[in-house]
Amino acid sequence: MKKLLIILTLTIFTSCLKDNESKGYYEKIVTAKVLAETIFVEDSLNSEKTEHMILVFSDKEKSYVALNGIKEFTYEKGFEYELSLKKFISRTQDSIKTEYYLIKILSKKKVE
After folding, report:
1. Residues near 52 by Cβ (< 8 Å), separated by ≥ 6?
2. Which residues make beta-bridge pairs with 98?
């Protein structure tokens, strides 16, 4: 009975996720490490460089996010963080937008 309930729950969750993907968006919970160092990224429209955090996800994928790019999170230079995030991706015909929302700070440590 327990296995049936788990299978049913996973099936419903998967179908909802696929339904949202077909509408052009989806969200998922991810864990990411925010490195203590930052990187400057050049904007392709105006050639202006802005400082970004470096996020490394559990699957080793890297992403560069503006210093204020995680909602409800304040980045402090010199600290490395482990965060639980909600990653929201929306797609339109000509663009993909990714937003991050802080769920919880799992760890924060000073890096010398």
Report:
1. 38, 39, 40, 41, 64, 65, 66, 67, 69
2. 89
Rounded Cα distance between 55 and 32, Å, is 6
Query: At 3, which amino acid appears?
Result: K
pLDDT digits (tens, 9 = 90+) for 24-46: 788 999 999 999 999 999 887 78
Q: Which residues contact 82 (CB under 8 A, 6 or more apart)?
A: 31, 32, 33, 34, 105, 106, 107, 108
3: phi > 0 → left, psi -120 to 50 → alpha, else beta; which?
Answer: alpha
pLDDT digits (tens, 9 = 90+) for 92-104: 878 888 999 999 9
Give buried/exposed letters for 4-21 (b at 16+ CB in 10 A, else e): eeeeeeeeeeeeeeeeee
Sheet (strand 49-57) strand order: 62-66, 49-57, 25-42, 79-91, 96-110, 70-71
